Amino acid sequence: MTEPNVLALENQVCFALTVAARTTVALYKPILEPLGLTHPQYLVMLALWEENPRTLRSLADALRLEPATLSPLLKRLEATGHIRRERSATDERALQVTLTEHGRRLRQIAETIPERVARSLEMPTESLIALRDSLNEVIRATTTAAR
Amino acid sequence: MTEPNVLALENQVCFALTVAARTTVALYKPILEPLGLTHPQYLVMLALWEENPRTLRSLADALRLEPATLSPLLKRLEATGHIRRERSATDERALQVTLTEHGRRLRQIAETIPERVARSLEMPTESLIALRDSLNEVIRATTTAAR
DNA sequence: TCATAATAGTTAGTGTACTAACGAATTCGG
DNA sequence: CCGAATTCGTTAGTACACTAACTATTATGA
What SMART domains does the entry give (chains A, B) (predicted)? Predict the structure, then answer.
């Protein structure tokens, strides 16, 4: 019995994690391109389809992103006509993000995306749900540890 | 029984995947900082500790990165004294990457990292192995689909 | 009330990661 | 053996994602 190599690239969860994230995002690229969206922008749209006018801070919390990361991302979404950015009337500090008519309409097309992606992953639905739950466990552990 | 929202952010595997990758990489940051390494640079070192003089192309294949991504990354690793970059004697096109004495020595310190990270994830080893295997399944599906 | 603290975004700078276009070296077919 | 195709890296340009430092606004408390 040989000593397992704890430093072997293929044994690292973090390596599998970063590669899987990259290749999965790449899978979305040709699907999202016709909608004029990148993958992070698509996640912003998902958050807005759930709750429509919401602040940058609210989006940053939901997406687990820093406001500084989201800021230029939202400017691009405004430039492509998906959203409007305007100061909140009640709190001048807050940036209110609102879907445009175009942005709202895109939802219908987007509704077919999850199934198309799941199909190309060629994994049973239960496996994908188990994977998602396992990833959420990782997220919980990593974000509480960072406190 | 309500219709499950297929577009809900929390239901997306791709969202869990990107967040988990980001938060896990963030976990490595304070650990790798004393070694003068970022996380992608650490992965390069893992690949080099497995096989020492190897070409940029070989590294790119092992790390699943484009040569264009790896190129500036290797220049930084050379600037920090972890590796040497030189043309192969047998094929002038190939860039041979070799660990420096410092780079080789770092391996001993690095050997404690996987256990430290696994501990802070607070997940049983079998769960982590299952997660890694599941991620590798995703990688296989996404990369063969891209052919 | 008025200085101070907290909160919301923005900007600047660093480091991946990708595609596309390119130059240089090698290989291969005729 | 010589021109075309292939292969190997590099460069340029775009887009995230982060930290740190900053402005502006609102809330707090002596």
Answer: HTH_MARR
- Cα of A142 to nearest chain B Cα, Å: 6
B71 touches strand C (CB under 7 A): no
Q: Is the CB of A91 under 7 A from strand C?
A: yes
The whole-chain average pLDDT of chain B stands at 94
Element (H, E) at A101: helix A101-110
The CATH class of A11-110 is mainly alpha
What is the rounded CA–CA span in Å between residue A79 and residue A83? 8
Instruction: Give A34's strand partners.
Output: none
Residue B102 to residue B37: CA distance in whole angstroms: 13
Q: Which CATH number fits domain B9-111: 1.10.10.10, 3.40.190.10, 3.30.540.10, 1.10.940.10?
A: 1.10.10.10
Residues 19-38 of A with CB under 8 A from B: 19-28
pTM above 0.90, yes or no: yes
User: Measured between CA atoms, how close is B87 to chain A, in angstroms?
Assistant: 25
Tell me: ipTM over 0.90: yes
**Helices and strands (H, E) in chain A, number of each type:** 7, 3
- Residue-wise pLDDT tens digits, B83-113: 999 999 999 999 999 999 999 999 999 999 9
Q: Where are the alpha helices (DSSP H) in chain B?
A: 13-32, 39-50, 56-63, 67-79, 101-110, 113-121, 125-145
| The pLDDT of residue A144 | 77
Domain ranges of chain A: 11-110, 112-147
Selection from A7, A37, A40 nearest residue B22 by Cα? A40
